[in-house]
């Protein structure tokens, strides 16, 4: 755990407020998370659920051999991906490589959301994780931050 804390302190550009890392609701830059929540409700909740709880039976392939939309909360695995990977998944879309079909089951939002909206919606998802998951994801994002951060 110490390794994660040190990593978090090095991340000076991060939106995470280290002192409040154990308080999920306050650990994320609130303005960005708030606008991200609005974008989530408009563009993502239809598949990932109003409370980001995922589609029913999300762990099992459906009749087409495709994985349904997973949760983004602490029950899911979104927190295992770095900022750049999450950004690319939302921007360019995604499908599990083992899906039977080739269609992008996770649609590309690059033409729909601005880069700042993509960052904001991911920032909102970060408010749904446990402190440990947040620390893990912060560590994963060292050197793998959002591509257009700072623009
Ligand atoms: C049409 C339904 C649909 C919509 C709308 C949708 N998604 Fe998805 N999303 C999926 C599916 C299905 C997957 C699982 C893809 C797979 O792994 O095969 C997924 C996967 C993801 C993943 C990867 C999670 C992981 O741990 O592998 C992220 C991140 C994600 N979606 C974010 C979003 C965001 C943010 C939005 C809104 C901007 C959104 N999705 C809108 C269907 C959707």
Taken from the alpha-carbon principal axes, the silhouette is globular
Output the CATH homologous superfamily: Cytochrome c-like domain
Tally of DSSP β-strands = 0
Query: Roughly what is the average pLDDT, rounded to an integer?
Result: 86
CATH architecture descriptor name: Orthogonal Bundle
Termini separation:
32 Å
Explained architecture:
The protein has 151 residues and is an all-alpha fold. The protein has one domain: Orthogonal Bundle (Cytochrome Bc1 Complex, Chain D, domain 2), CATH 1.10.760. The chain is 39% helix and 0% strand. The chain contains six helices and no strands. The longest helix has 14 residues. It is globular, with a radius of gyration of 15 Å. Bound molecules: heme C (HEC). The site of heme C has 24 residues, from helix 3 and helix 4.
Summarize the structure.
With 151 residues, this protein is an all-alpha fold.
How is this fold's topology laid out?
Layout: H1 2-10, H2 30-43, H3 45-48, H4 83-92, H5 115-126, H6 131-140
Helix pairs in contact: 1-6, 2-5, 4-5
Bound molecules: heme C.
Residues 43-44, 46-48, 67-70, 77-78, 81, 86, 89-90, 94-96, 99, 105-107, 109, 121 line the site of heme C.
